[in-house]
Amino acid sequence: MKTDELREMYLDFYVSKGHTLQGSDVLVPTWDPSVLFTPAGMNQFKDHFLGKVKLDFTRATTCQKCLRTGDIENVGRTAYHHTFFEMLGNFSFGDYFKTEAIHWAWEFLTSKKWLNIPAGRLNVTVYKDDDEAFGIWHEQIGLPTSKIARMDEDENFWPASAPSQGPDGVCGPCSEIYYELEGGESVEIWNLVFTQFNRIGSPPDNLHPLPSKNIDTGMGLERCASVLQGQPTNYHIDNLFPIVQAAAEVCSRNYSLDSDDGRRLRRITDHVRACTFSIHENVYPGPDKAKYVVRRLIRRAVLDGHQMGLREPFLHQIVPAVVEQMKKPYPELAESVQRVTRVMQKEEEAFFQTLDAALSRIDQMFTRMEDVAGVMVDGNEAADLYKTYGVPPELLQTLASEKNLTFDWDGYNKSMDQHAVDSGAGQKELFQTGPLETLKESLRETPFLGYEQISASCHVKGIIVGNTDGDEHLLGKVAAGGADQELRVVLDHTPFYAESGGQVGDVGTIHNDDFEFHVTDTQKHAALIVHYGHLVRGTIHENATVTADVDTERRDAIRRAHSATHILHHALQKHVGQHAQQQGSKVEADVLRFDFTNQEALSEAQIEAIQSDVLEHVAAGDPIRWDTVPLADARAAGAMMLFGEKYPDPVRMVSMGEFSKELCGGTHLDNTGDVQAFELTSEESVSSNTRRIVALTGEKAKAYRQQTTEILEAAAKQLACPVAAVSEATKSLIDQVRKLKKQLASGNADVQKRTPVTGGGGEASYAKMKLIVRDTARMLNVAAADVSSRIDALLADEKSLIQQLANLTAGEQVTADDLLADAETVGESLLIVRTIDGANPNVIRQLIDQLRKKSDKPVAVLLATVVGGDKVILVAGISKALVEGGMSAGKWVGEVAAVVGGGGGGKPDLAQAGGKDPEKLPAAIDKAKEGARAMIG
Ligand code: ATP
Ligand code: MG
């Protein structure tokens, strides 16, 4: 069974058990600060398990992209570990529990209809005190006690060792399913976690039953495929071995299982695949967090290549092979092949440049250590290798461990801390020097004119070139020339708003007849306002009289977004509660991001209420005023103040109509009506206590609204359904394509038309339309803007599948009489063996029935056909007389199927088998004839 088929089969199985199919979460979940990469299927459901979100469903099934950095050292060495792998899972949120979880896992693995793994090859573990799980496996499933091992809490509890060591909180025992390999060794393929306790305090009696119990299971896709495909390692399965081969080719090596090169090629395969998925998600190699993991993976793989003699970047050449293998389940990868390749090549180039020098230093170090019988790599020296050559300490540690040397992490960390102090990172704060400091002393502060005017006449007070690395200095004049040279300009006063309070800095131009300076950002340094940008014409002089013009259109768009932020804050307090206070915000041109305190996701009703509340305030056209008032007066007036925030006195208070008073330094509209339009586009979690809203105003909101409507109308047209039924019709299309693919694979040509979706009736409100677009995009696993092209692709798939199925039925037309006319006489019987191009297996079985009825002599028939271009189906049938004579259709077809790389069987008089090598069909036909002649004779 192909890996792609296994993935689909698992999901189909759990859908048939009432689970909702959900997409994979991203690999790098920036929304979850507790992990760098998604380590398991359950992570996207954390809030579901904790009962923090409203549940649309209580059973889910997924195939999740995972990455485990903890397994890096295992990769290449064990047969069954990757960093990147796919995990299949089924989840219950307070719905079914142990009995169903175990029964279904067993059914999926062993039943003929599904994986059909011989029960004798499976054994399981349970937590030592989990008599319930033991009982289900033993009494209900019927596993002998010799096949159920009771394990300790460090093996069979989630989180590991939780009962004795914590942490407090939800936890539970688990049960693992192992497959026994030829040599008696076992591999874990599936882990069933039964989350049933809340741990409070130390043992004993610290595990309290949860009122609502959960199921979380994880089955390794590659491990299970490897078992089903009878392969020696995960790396030999159908969607990984082509990558191993591509790596072998790029490295000019012959791959073999048990050699150093073999291990290296497997590691390269894994790491390129992991990095392809990470870079695709915009996680580029870099100095920290997830980026650092990507850097380490690339450098480890480069080192493997280096050890096989490569001296030029090579890894990036393997990316297309990864995409080729993975693009079926993850079609979005195909769009980023070039980007991923480029990023990887650049990182490789940089590392190759220093690698030779670094390795020779590492060699010297190891030799020196041998001389003095040293056992621990010196942390100082490791830090030096990192600073000079970029050798990650983890990589050095790996090289050291190959020589049985340990690594001095303490020394390494101390040395790196000292490095930070020496390079001035720590001192800067204490003794600041430089041109900005000089300006601060002479000017003290830059008065801001921008509340009243967006253009002003000013004088140049300082021009700074260079960056903060130490080569920055003040100049009396600078001429345009170095086009990209960044300058910083300080004026005596300015209408440009410097980034603060979440509002971005202004852009615009500073100019006079002699020069033109483009301002690309404005920032505050203490009380100085600094304009960043470059000179596009002429020469700028200190003390020149200039005009400073803020980009008005952009500033107006920022004002719209900022005023809308205050209105939104008010609406949140009203519809979510007093606790929904601002945690942070970012205000840009017609885009705003607003973080506020709240634990659970907002309901659809809340979101709708907030959206329409904001719009009501916009429609009301209330005046907006700002005054500078004593802090005490602002407090007395009930202005919104944030906990823990320090305010100056006096403060600037921004009021809108009678409904909103906030202390704020930003630039605002004169009237709420000028917000023009408001669209709340997303609401999501940023951390366990904080939610984030993103919204649009003005032109962007209008464009968004129009786009949403257009997307939906286009989709409705494509799917020929009412607008309100688009998500339903999309689901039906997805299901249909899935079903057709399965039919094609099994050779069942009986096409059922997709029932048109007519429901959903009536007019859809705009709010409803937005939800439909969101749901549809989620289902299709694309951005809203790509919904239409994705539906097109699915419709094309559907059409082509139907065509392929039609070709199946329209196979070569052969009648029973044709076949009888060509039959070979063997003794008293007739022998008919041949292929019928493109025939449907149902038709073949009917033909065999007719032959047996029509012929007056006993017949032995074996007919073969190829379906879907790559699958052979063989059906054999023999007359009763031959069965009585000792011949078996099952045995016959089984021997023949082996020739085409497959197997199968059935009853003595009728049997079917499959195979996967259509090119071996002629040999199989010969074999079939020989076999039958021998058996009949
Ligand atoms: P192992 O002990 O073999 O590392 P595990 O106990 O860490 O496995 P779980 O955390 O229970 O595994 O994950 C569930 C399933 O995911 C496992 O049963 C296995 O099939 C698969 N799996 C786990 N880690 C890897 C990996 N690094 N590469 C491939 N598959 C894995
Ligand atoms: Mg593990």
TrEMBL record:
It is found in: Cytoplasm. Its cofactor is Zn(2+). One of its GO terms (cellular component) is cytosol. InterPro entries: aa-tRNA-synth_II/BPL/LPL (IPR045864), Ala-tRNA-lgiase_IIc (IPR002318), Ala-tRNA-ligase_IIc_anticod-bd (IPR018162), Ala-tRNA-synth_IIc_core (IPR018165), Ala-tRNA-synth_IIc_N (IPR018164), Ala-tRNA_ligase (IPR050058), Ala_tRNA_ligase_euk/bac (IPR023033), DHHA1_dom (IPR003156). Its EC number is 6.1.1.7. It catalyses: tRNA(Ala) + L-alanine + ATP = L-alanyl-tRNA(Ala) + AMP + diphosphate. Zn(2+) binds at residues 562, 566, 664, 668. Pfam families: DHHA1 (PF02272), tRNA-synt_2c (PF01411), tRNA_SAD (PF07973). CDD domains: AlaRS_core. Residues 1-707 form the Alanyl-transfer RNA synthetases family profile domain. HAMAP family: Ala_tRNA_synth_B. Catalyzes the attachment of alanine to tRNA(Ala) in a two-step reaction: alanine is first activated by ATP to form Ala-AMP and then transferred to the acceptor end of tRNA(Ala). Also edits incorrectly charged Ser-tRNA(Ala) and Gly-tRNA(Ala) via its editing domain. This is Alanine--tRNA ligase. The gene is alaS.
